[in-house]
Amino acid sequence: MTRKNPPALTFLSLLESPKHGYSGAEFPPVINSSTKSYDVAVDGSVTLQCQSEGYPTPSVIWHKDGQPLTESVRQRVLSSGSLHIVFTQPGDTGRYTCTAANVAGSSSVEMSLTTLNSLNSQPSLFSGSPIFTVEPVDTVVDSGSTVVLNCQAQGEPTPVIEWASQGRPLLSNDRITILANGSLRISSAQKEDTAEYACIARNLMGSALDYDYLHIYMCVCVCVCVCVGVLINQLMEVSLSGWNGVPAVCPVGLEFRGG
Which positions fall inside the Ig-like domain (predicted)? Predict the structure, then answer.
């Protein structure tokens, strides 16, 4: 009788990727970023790509010229890990490093960003880049009031002033108005208006950027006064010590009751 060889045994191990919910293994980050050099015009916008994969999901940090990059109204790290920059300035030129890390390891990629001024190759007959004559300052107001964030600039040609908040341009509506002098007026201020605001002045010669912070102070007051034999309803204003030591004025309803 002829003896048959036993069938060869093949072991196939299927390892699911983190995308399918497998949690039995850890994978160091892998960064998908093919572009290593970016050019963008002054006052433009650009996204430095840094999409990473790994398990657990990697956290992403950015460095510029070897220093940690701090997010601002112009520079935001997206949920994908990429860095989005708006209203680009000459100072944004440099070397950027994206680092993705998790418990299994880390990975980094380096890329360069160059901001280009279309007028660099043309002789300048004058220095007319915008200069702020009135700069915005941090402001605290109580809810429901009207507030004006002052911002004025001069230059040649006359600069156009725009406003942005949380990285998004602000457009005039029924509550928000950009005045003729460039200042920003907000009517019926609401708690949701609390934010960092950017004033951007620009013309053909360049641009200037400044920030302020607006805080809407919510005030609730109740006073009850008892007077003998008198019943009067009256509305008064009470000065309070508001946020950051700035006085706030709060309307208070006073009820005088007979005792």
Answer: 28-114, 130-203
